[in-house]
Amino acid sequence: MINVNTVNNYKDMLSRQFEYLRISVTDRCNYRCSYCMPAEIFNKDYSYIKQNKILSYEEIIQISLILKKVGLKKIRITGGEPLLRKNIDKLIYKLKTEVGIEHVSMTTNGSLLTDEKLSLLKSSGLDSVTLSLDTLNSDKIIKINGTKKQFNLDKVLQGIEKYFGKVKTNTVVIKGINDNEILDIIIKMIEINSEVRFIEYMDVGESNNWDLEKVVPSKDILKSIKSRYSLSLIKTDKSSTAEKWSIENTNTSVGFISSITEPFCNGCNRARLSVDGKLYTCLFANEGYDLKTIIRNGASEKDVLNYFQNIWSKRSDRYSELRFINKSDLPKVEMSYIGG
Ligand code: SAM
Predict the structure, then answer these.
(1) Could you report the per-residue pLDDT of 229-246, keeping only the tens digit for each?
(2) How far is the CA of 32 from the CAs of 36, 141, 174, 204, 333, in angstroms?
(3) Residue nearest to atom 2 of ligand 1 (CA)
(4) What per-residue confidence (pLDDT) applies to 8?
(5) CA-CA distance, 275 to 338, in Å (whole number)?
(6) CA of 141 to the centre of ligand 1 (A)
């Protein structure tokens, strides 16, 4: 049985301490990014999770309160597009005030980030916003992100800066699609003192027709940035997914998430909660643990703690490190469902 007083010694089989939960609050999105929710698959016939199976805010709070007892410190609200979920600010407010989560962040495509929304998110206690930004070219948005409806990027960037101080962006780099925009994105980010992260295109889910040939290794991106700027490495802790560099004489940093070429499983301190309340310990998992059913069946806090302890203490997954060695025939879950 778990002793909640020994949270700091609470590790998995590879000595990884649980600290971070990513929650997918909806599996729906108003974008159809080719690498995540391609339009051919996520069309009108696609079966999204039914309303009565989606975790309610009360259930998310209940789970978060319990997981806080085993080390939970940080939560990222994601999806799908998290701003499609009604009253998301109310969930954030409760996570901050009732649960006392140290850091609550959100990843969003930014399309619904009005000044009013940003103000509401800030006053609810949200600590930071990461904007997914794959291109600065409005024609390419249709090709990469599958949306014709465009928003005013500068206005959204200014809004994030106004309410959250620092703008953070994520760019998934895909060969032949947006790899020629890396320096333009850097220039833009220097202009607004932002943190930019380049993500290697990953083989998440089964829908995106992933191909190693389309991956641009982080070291190539770094090389092209170094050809123009002087960079110095920033020390990050073991659980950080990104290698980070500061760009000299600017207030900008650039990070690299290199799941394909430099996997970081050994520092992974995170679990994921799917839209329908399944717990996953790896982004590339085939199967999750049905926390929602346990909660809905009236399990006590102690039962849930034991259930979680049992999962975490036996955890040994390190998909990215074994990607090219161990191949599973089972389908991987989609990122929109499990939370990006
Ligand atoms: N809709 C929100 C958004 O666009 O930011 C949140 C969900 S999205 C799944 C979260 C992040 O996952 C985005 O930054 C997106 O670029 C990233 N992502 C999705 N599919 C990916 C893939 N195959 N490889 C790398 N990153 C991916």
Answers:
(1) 999 999 888 778 789 999
(2) 7, 10, 15, 15, 17
(3) 108
(4) 46
(5) 7
(6) 14
